[in-house]
Amino acid sequence: MLSVYEGFFSGGARIVHSDVVRGLQEGGQQQRVLSIHGEVHREATRQRMEDDACYRSLTAAGVGVTSLGRTFPASGDPATFTGPELADTARATADADVILSLKEQPLRLLNQAGLPRRPVVVCLHRSDPENQGRALDDLKAAIADGTVAACVCCAESTRAAYEAAGIPAGLLHVIPNGVDLLRFRPDPARRLALRTSLGIPATAPVVVFAARYDAMKNVPLFLRAAREWLEREPAGHVLMCGAGMTPLNPGLDADIEAAFGTARRRLADRLHPLGVRHDMEHVYAAADVVALTSSWGEAAPLCLIEGMMCGAVPVATDVGDSAAIVTGHGIVTPPAPTAIAHAWTTATASRADFAPALAASRERFSRSRMIASYAALLDRVAAGAAAARRTLPEPL
After folding, report:
1. Angle at 291 between CA 347 and CA 53, to 5 degrees
2. Which end of the chain is more exposed for a tag (fewer CB within 10 A), N or C?
3. Mean pLDDT across the stretch 237-245?
4. CATH number corresponding to 2-178+367-387
């Protein structure tokens, strides 16, 4: 199997897909990864492939990872590839039985003429196919060409959105996201250690927001809710994790200024922009609430699942499958700062009441279930491709 990534950069889709690849490798399926970009500059963060946690996890598991060496953004047409880049891609795809495309963006490479024809499974992780530039057109072109054998949707909202956008229903298979339940679990020692490192008292209410700095995450809405909540909760603390969630990001700095105004100095000591973290199991364990304020694009947000499995109560706006994930385990809110702040207060006060439902739902969100479903689908695709090759007429 060969997976093709647009690049290695912070985001839930890359985390999920890399975990799937690693799990398939552990299960005996030989896995390799080709990344179009070797370095990505986005969310006010320079992200090199070799520094990425997913890259390190894959290579540590024995998965070979190579790159075409591009930098994003770069000048020129991103859909135009050089002869050497196409040659590298041809060598990488020639030995594959099935190709996995992490989202539809790599299809601009895989659709290039002259590459070895292999069945492609496209892994879809959003609920807004119309908001991703030419990617939807690339997906439709690959389907029309007969290249795409299946599409994995990480959520029912993804399946519905892509079907509405014209993707044949028979190609769309839903495999919900899952996480490593041994890693993501309630842990009092982790909770205390993370809080101690940040100077947060053991009994303080804590909200965590794990998101990259992107418009779809609606960071201004989150910050307005955070200001109201911190005003109401004098002992409360707010953690912000993800690419661009640092004081070095001028965009985030401006958003904080706009949301907090004159109260910024008084409340800033309890607002912690932590940037990209590689110990999210500790961060979530330290929190009472995991928050999501996204406006569009989400499908099955990984932060909600990881946070829930660590014992944090999810509080989210109704976007993608968020409501389906949160219902019974937390609180769904309208996109209004006051309502969100009130929900955080309710969630922290009711954490013990939500705990039994969170514990009972662990198997539903397991990594083992997710990887087994991927393996079964890929086996069917590979078997179908092998059968099709056997029926081809002999060359004259």
Report:
1. 135
2. C
3. 97
4. 3.40.50.2000
pLDDT digits (tens, 9 = 90+) for 125-150: 999 999 989 999 999 999 999 999 99
Question: What's the fold here for domain 188-363?
Answer: Rossmann fold (3.40.50)
pLDDT at 310 over 90: yes
Quick one: CA torsion of 183, 189, 190, 195, rounded to 10 degrees? 160
Rounded to whole angstroms, what are the CA distances from 260 to 14, 111, 227? 33, 48, 6
User: Residue 318 pLDDT more than 80?
Assistant: yes
pLDDT at 264 over 90: no
Residue 366 DSSP class? B
Provide the token pair at 182. 């041994």
The type of residue at 11 is G
- Mean pLDDT to the nearest integer, 207-230: 97
Listed by start position, the domains of the chain span 2-178+367-387, 188-363
Neighbours of 161 (CB within 10 A): 22
The pLDDT score that the predictor gives to residue 371 is: 98
C-alpha distances in angstroms, 187 versus 19, 336, 353?
22, 32, 18
In whole angstroms, what separates CA 358 from the centre of its chain? Answer: 21
Q: To which residue do tokens 């968020």 refer?
A: 322
Amino acid type, 127? S
Q: Answer for the pair 264, 230: CB distance below 8 angstroms, yes or no.
A: no
* C-alpha 174, offset from chain centre: 16
pTM: 0.95
